[in-house]
Design goal:
Structural class: alpha/beta
Strand content: 5-15%
Mean pLDDT: 90
Distance between the termini: 47 Å
Number of strands: 9
CATH class of the domain at 8-190 and 353-374: Alpha Beta
Helix content: 25-40%
Number of helices: 11
Length: 392
Amino acid sequence: MTAPKTLTAIDLFCGAGGLSEGFRQAGFHVLAGQDFDATAGATFAATHPEARFLPGPIQEVTASQLLRATGLKRAEVDVLVGGPPCQGYSVYNHQRGADDPRAGLFREYLRIVEGLQPKWLVMENVTGITSIAGGAIVREIQRGMAKLGYRVRMKVLKAEEFGVPQERRRVFFIATRTAQPIFFPAAVHGPGLPNFVTIWDAISDLPRVPNGGAGCSLNYASAPRNEYQRRLRGAEQVVTNHEAPQLARVNEERMKHIPPGGSWRDLPFALLPQGMRRAKRSDHTKRYGRPRKTDLACTILTKCDVHWGAYIHPVQDRAITVREAARLQSFPDSFVFQGSRTDQYKQVGNAVPPLLGFHVAKAMLSAMEAPEAEESTSDAIPGELFDLSVAI
């Protein structure tokens, strides 16, 4: 009997390695990662000891360097994954546009594709990419992949439908130069399916920490209470990256007035920030939000700042920790994020949720094993079709 082939992957713009981790969990062998952020690279290197990390600007990285790092030849890489930095596309960036330097980094991804000629491509980004310049960037990505010999499909995936306890929308491009079909994963949570994983499902076994309290290596508060916690804890015995940022005294006072499900609207007028005292009640809907235990988290950003979003702990008067943010992103507890706490939040917020990456990778494995005739238009959206109305 022939041993199964080891499938290989390279991750561009890898950050801390969220997408890599998802593919690794699905059985891919991640051979290399590349990123400009050296601190995120330190996290990637520590959590992907089997991979080679290539630091520096993508503009200075060549396909030949990646091939030397992996020991592979051109056209031997099974999949090239990556998410060019998304800030240029995000609806949270009010100066976003096609002229933002970050909005052109997908061309560097395509340059590496041309040099590597991998069998499959996975590119991920925020949904804001679909509305820049009337969809011109999306069309350029699709045409660029097609010019290099790839069939490409695009679809918006909702992280919560794949077991991530967070409302998060991301665009995925999947492309191949093989004869295999292109599949996107089918939802596994939602109406008619198992319930969404909630915030409390994700973090209820983590120990209490005070506002500003340190927590280097703490004991868990309980045994795992559900399958999600068991999956993320694995064999870990202690909790890391679990330190609450020190909030100002005025914010401590504000949090006392905000119930689960509440927000800035629950604050006495005297405690409202000066800039919000003329705000309409329909404005700033997530600011100073305290989610309910049964809620999905709002999108985890690079700053879990209570002034900008619903990042107050459901039952404790503090902001969520890096570890709690990582749990809400589906990172295993074995990931120890490097650098300052600011760096750590940034790494978590910039990442693709590993569990979402896992389901994308599993769908790709199904496609690799399927005959060409099995491709279904219900699972693969034609490349030129995309919904410009979907918000991040």
